[in-house]
């Protein structure tokens, strides 16, 4: 049995900035943070720590770890850190208006490709680190194939994604552990 971990970096990082603002007392709750666009701008997370947390401390049996996120300008060191932590990194280029494109669909493609080509075997554990319901069709496909998934994200993750997961790992209690020092 191996672990197949799929991370939407943009989801984790952007939401983490809002949750860090709450943890640091800048705002009362994450909903107020969103409404007023209050976030902890310098907050960044450590890829290795994320992998350790979502794998419940056992990274010895990771079969595949995928990190999807759009490439910010001139920040290859970020992606090198992710590779060093054990992730395969996919970074689609932003469009001409510097908007993120193809991250969600690319993430979904990797999970579905692994699901349907046998990379994910019957006893493998699937861990999705995403928060929005845009990824729910992937969750449905996993369930339709007779498999289950663990969802790891901040507490404000899609209720639909949480409800159908076998296990939910809240990142909220790990906000300080995840932060890059």
Automatic annotation (TrEMBL):
Organism of derivation: Faecalibacterium prausnitzii
- The NYN domain extends over 37-171
This protein is called NYN domain-containing protein
List, in alphabetical order, the Gene Ontology terms for molecular function in this entry. RNA nuclease activity
